[in-house]
Specification:
2 copies of one chain form a homodimer.
Chain A: E1 3-7, H1 14-23, E2 27-32, H2 35-43, H3 54-65, E3 69-73, H4 79-87, E4 106-109, H5 116-119, H6 123-147, E5 152-158, E6 173-178, E7 181-186, H7 194-213, E8 216-222, E9 225-226, H8 252-262, E10 279-280, H9 281-293, E11 300-304
Helix pairs in contact in A: 4-6, 6-7
Chain lengths: ~300, ~300
């Protein structure tokens, strides 16, 4: 049975992903430090409805389906927490069977501070974003190097890494011909927030790990995801994912829907003339599933827009 | 009188740079957390000769020349230490006149963990390198944003950021024509150590700050620097810069010279067939001086190889 480890398993995508794979018979382990919940409390931006803790949700999932999602509450910026998932020294906060499931075949890396506005509140939030996102990714890369170069990582990037260049955006890579010689490079990246810049740096780190140590990584460059319900959350509303509609963690479509329902004027972003690609949450899960069953090869940083 | 702040003022380049500008009549402030000295102690890699502390060297410099180099011992990964150089809340560890000199016109940013081997000793040293280099740079970028967008920063990059592409390396930037459209981008960067990767990320951060907040930054992409003596250190041998010849902090030419003098076989790097550009320490000081007197413009990330 294939074992999937989800970093950031309490998040907007993390929990639906955990249920999705659990439902399909995978062994699933989730880890989270409740960063998002704590940040919402600190910044006084409430979620739309209360959501049980990760441990509670795992218990509800088990009661309703008989399936086990193992839960670790811990901070992955601490390298020892990350490495425990490879050495077996992991301490489960909840599990039916506390025996180590083994090194995961697939790791889904969502454990990042995901908000551009948060990253620019001030220098302190900028540093939190920088440290969290880069340490988690670096701890992951070095754990793979040291313990399991065959494990496939699926990372969620963002189209925002590319910025708005004056040339067509390609799928991660570009062939450059220059003065009669040719080479293939990462497509140029220049973002418009500190958060997006940390995602560029994630790419720098992952591409380094792939080149040096033959890691295998898929980077899904997504647009903003929207929606609440998935097939698995329909079972019980307590299984719904966290849902933010505020100006810090609320993404645009979720925010618009909430505003529309309560009759509040829609927020205008910039001059209101931007066009972007948006992705429905069920489609995101399908993307991640497809990347799982057809993984990147060794020594491949595979990028999908 | 122009005021220069040197981040990493105790380092191999930091101290010679401080004396160079002090000698030429600039007001000079240096800051350092003794990272290099402490790392040498921890890793048991001794320097070639003992070097007085930064405070002692500033006192010696004052005794011999009558000039003042203000010293702060502090860790620039702490944003409050960085911001003090702009708000005036700085606490000098040594100064003749403890009154705040004012916001610097020029900041020379050397405050980085500079060793590729150090960054790859293991995951802990990788994290130290990542955190140190990125937090210092981010604290600098946000301080400039918040307090002084006119201050010119000179950062020392490295040719190693470019890696070894199959196209000619250009001076920082490249015009890409793609499917009938054109744009100018940072020259592709992909390095072969974690240290070099953090320098790529520095560039990501600085370019973000320049685009967003009209900062003015010069990035000097240097090869390894060699040599001990500068015009100013000749005055007294206690003013010599720190000199490493070990396998962690010793750079190649300094290491070869030391090995040659004691009759120890020269270390072979890789297959021994690499070619690289090396820079004499006095020439580095000249580069930095030239960049100081002809600064980058607002909204310019100026890159010299």
């Amino acid at each position: 049975m294939s074992h999937i480890l989800i970093l950031g398993g309490d998040g907007y995508l993390g929990w639906p992903t955990a249920m999705y794979f659990s439902q399909r018979g995978y062994d699933v382990t989730v880890v989270d430090n409740y960063f998002r919940r704590n940040a919402c409390t600190e910044l006084d931006v409430g979620m739309l409805y209360p959501v049980p803790t990760l441990v509670e949700r795992a218990k509800i999932w088990h009661e309703l389906t008989g399936k086990e999602i193992k839960v670790v509450i811990g901070d992955l910026t601490d390298p020892e927490i990350m490495r425990a998932f490879f050495t077996g020294k992991v301490e489960y906060s909840w599990a039916l069977d506390k025996k180590f499931t083994g090194i995961p075949e697939t790791i889904i890396h969502y454990a990042e501070q995901p908000s551009a506005p948060y990253s620019l509140i001030n220098y302190k939030y900028a540093n939190i974003t920088l440290i969290n996102n880069l340490l988690v990714t670096n701890n992951l890369v070095f754990s793979l190097r040291d313990f399991s170069r065959d494990t496939h990582v699926i990372h969620v990037g963002t189209m925002g890494e590319y910025g708005t260049p004056n040339i067509d955006i390609e799928e991660g890579w570009i062939d450059i011909e220059h003065k009669g010689k040719k080479d293939k490079f990462l497509f140029p990246r220049q973002a418009s927030s500190l958060y997006h810049t940390t995602k560029i740096m994630d790419t720098d780190l992952m591409w380094f790990g792939v080149r040096m140590w033959d890691l295998r990584i898929t980077d899904l460059m997504q647009g903003p995801v929207y929606g609440i319900e998935t097939e698995e959350s329909k079972i019980d509303k307590r299984l719904n994912t966290i849902f933010n509609y505020d100006e810090i963690f609320g993404t645009i479509v979720n925010r618009f829907i909430t505003q529309a329902i309560i009759g509040y004027p829609l927020t205008v972003y910039g001059k209101g003339g931007q066009t972007r690609g948006y992705l429905y949450i069920k489609d995101t899960l399908q993307c991640v599933h497809k990347a799982t069953i057809t993984p990147a090869k060794k020594h491949e940083l595979r990028i999908f827009n």
